[in-house]
Amino acid sequence: MGSRFWVVFGACLTQFTIIGIFVSSGLFFKIFEVEFGWSRTVLSSASALGVLMMGVLAMVSGRLSDRYGPRRVLAFNGVAFGLGYILLSQMTAEWQLFVIFGVFLGLGFGSHDVVTLSTVARWFEARRGMMTAVVKVGTAVGQVAVPPIVAIMIAGMGWRPAVLTLGIIATGLLLIAAMSMKAPPVRTGATPTAAATGVEFVEAQRTRIFWTLCAVQFLFFPTMMTLPLHLPAHGMDLGMTPTLAAGLISVMGASSIAGRLVIGRLLDMIGGRNCYLVSLACLIAALGPISFLTAHLPLFAMVAVYGFAHGALFVVVSPTVAEYFGMRAHGAIFGVVVFFGTIGGSIGPILAGVLFDMTGTYTIAFLTLMAMAALAFILILTLPRPRREAA
């Protein structure tokens, strides 16, 4: 029990730190527009590069974690992530922004989901869905707590000292988290361990299920990357103060806790395919109204609905991969699915930035995301029902 507790703690702390700080990046958009004269297309492109590199490095991190364990991978990438924000505090040119997001922040992103969730899936065979949800609650708490703190830091000390402080704190927290993580011991005897059951990576690639999950990730993940990044700027465009706009992210994070816990429980009861359908239906229901609302209170309400879907979709993927393919090559398979998501996730913020610069509104961008989510829903309907692994 002791080792399991520390693994969950380390996974939660990793999620809290990396996602909590990253979703606060939208608070700097207005500042960079004013200080450097950069468009939202430029800012969105830098963020999108970080997301794309997350996918590329997730494939590498998943394989390295399968082979060498999670601790060394998380420690190296965590230091890189913290160093990225330290360097960001000294930024003066566009190319520096792209290097920081593409290399340093991309390394942190590359392991925060694949390594932590794959490790937790190995430790908790019978409660995989619920424990994945518990870990992703760490993400939600970060989304709730960190943006308001960052807004206060910016107001109190200026953006450069605030970013420098974030980088130092992130480095320390992520090293603590990495030291808490380890792979489960391999059981001996005639019965295969959880890590030994399932299909090989090459075998998984030959199945329609694998490519369907990749396509679904490509279609819904742009929303996951675009809304948290652009919501603060969108709120300020609608007349909100920076602190109130940061509250949009906090509401999203708070409601995502419910989404994570509800879907985590349902995963262990009704399986990944059905949980995908529930999550995507909520996402579609939220994106339509968000595309048109201008009044603050209704917008906050729809952001709460979106947050439920946001949290649920971050929980459902890893256990569903385990249901269909087992744990033999879970890190590698999950890493590729995540990579396809980040291809879409890298396009989403750029597209939103371009459409905003062209039209002065996010309406078309948000409606496009809704259409992609609807297509993902249809693809999930084509999947067979998985054979549930025995507890």
- Choose one word for the global shape: globular
CA-atom Rg in angstroms: 20 Å
Number of domains: 1
Order of helices and strands: HHHHHHHHHHHHHHH
What's the mean pLDDT score?
84
CATH architecture label: Up-down Bundle
Helical fraction equals over 70%
Count, helices: 15
Number of strands: 0
Strand content: under 5%
Helical/strand content category: mainly alpha
CATH topology: Growth Hormone, Chain: A
> What low-confidence regions span 5 or more consecutive residues with pLDDT below 50?
188-194
What name goes with the CATH superfamily?
A: MFS general substrate transporter like domains
What is the end-to-end distance? 18 Å
Major sheet summary line: none
Determine and state the CATH class. Answer: Mainly Alpha
